[in-house]
């Protein structure tokens, strides 16, 4: 195989265009897991890599006050009916009805925040919607660790093709972000 820039063409991968390095490493691992048939582990890694990639891009755009141009409202993580104390009572009680309303509004706002951010970043939303359906739900806890949630009844239905789509989508999204990457020099 011919050498280009000191490596063979087989060694060159579009994963190298993904930032940050930690996301690239997760994608390399996921690629190996796909080849080895460990689809769930691969999807976990791809989901984490995508999340890190988006956070890295957004964090590099913050201004001197740490505001992001991709901020579309506060996190609603702890604004559920459970955290507000509205999850108890009979199903027909006013408190439970208010709790259900709170949860639906929270879910709607979180979905809109997510969609607006992806569109603002230039990510193909239709492909993103498939990516979200195939990858596990990630929740970051206070320690900074990630909790990976998946519906078990769907886990055995995921295929190598699904994992490859998610990997390719993450790389495609990295290229879209790189297409217009910028740094704002902030004078202090």
Which features would summarize this protein structure in a list?
188 residues, mainly alpha, 2 domains, two-stranded antiparallel sheet, 7 helices
Q: Can you describe this structure?
A:
The protein is mainly alpha-helical and 188 residues long. The chain has 2 domains: 13-66 and 136-188, no CATH class; 71-120. It is 54% helix and 6% strand. It has 7 helices and 4 strands. It has helices at residues 21-35, 39-59, 81-84, 94-120, 125-134, 152-155, 160-179, and strands spanning 3-4, 7-8, 137-140, 146-149. The strands form 2 sheets. The protein has a two-stranded antiparallel sheet with strand order 1-2. A two-stranded antiparallel ribbon has the order 3-4.
Write the layout of secondary structure elements.
Elements: E1 3-4, E2 7-8, H1 21-35, H2 39-59, H3 81-84, H4 94-120, H5 125-134, E3 137-140, E4 146-149, H6 152-155, H7 160-179
Antiparallel strand pairs: 1-2, 3-4
Q: How many domains?
A: 2
Task: Report the total helices.
Answer: 7
Query: In which range does the helix fraction lie?
Result: 40-55%
What's the end-to-end separation, in Å? 51 Å
Strand order of the largest sheet: 1-2
Q: Average pLDDT value? A: 87
Elements, N to C (H/E): EEHHHHHEEHH
Outline: globular
Going by helix content, strand content and strand pairing, the class is mainly alpha
Radius of gyration: 20 Å
Main sheet attributes: strand count, strand direction, barrel closure: 2 strands, antiparallel
Work out the number of β strands. Answer: 4
Low-pLDDT stretches are none
Strand content: 5-15%
């Amino acid at each position: 195989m011919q050498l280009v820039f000191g490596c063979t063409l087989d060694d060159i991968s579009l994963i190298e265009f993904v930032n940050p390095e930690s996301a690239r490493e997760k994608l390399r691992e996921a690629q190996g897991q796909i080849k080895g048939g460990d689809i769930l582990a691969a999807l976990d890694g791809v989901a984490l890599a995508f999340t890190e990639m988006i956070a890295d891009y957004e964090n590099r755009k913050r201004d001197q006050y740490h505001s992001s141009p991709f901020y579309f409202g506060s996190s609603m993580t702890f604004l559920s009916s459970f955290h507000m104390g509205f999850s108890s009572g009979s199903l027909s009680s006013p408190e439970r009805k208010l709790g259900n309303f709170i949860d639906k509004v929270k879910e709607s706002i979180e979905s809109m925040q997510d969609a607006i951010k992806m569109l603002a970043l230039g990510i193909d939303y239709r492909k993103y919607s498939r990516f979200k359906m195939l990858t596990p739900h990630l929740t970051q806890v206070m320690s900074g660790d990630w909790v990976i949630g998946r519906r078990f009844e769907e886990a055995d239905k995921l295929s190598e093709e699904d994992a490859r789509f998610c990997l390719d989508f993450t790389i495609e999204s990295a290229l879209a972000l790189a297409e217009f990457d910028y740094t704002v020099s902030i004078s202090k």
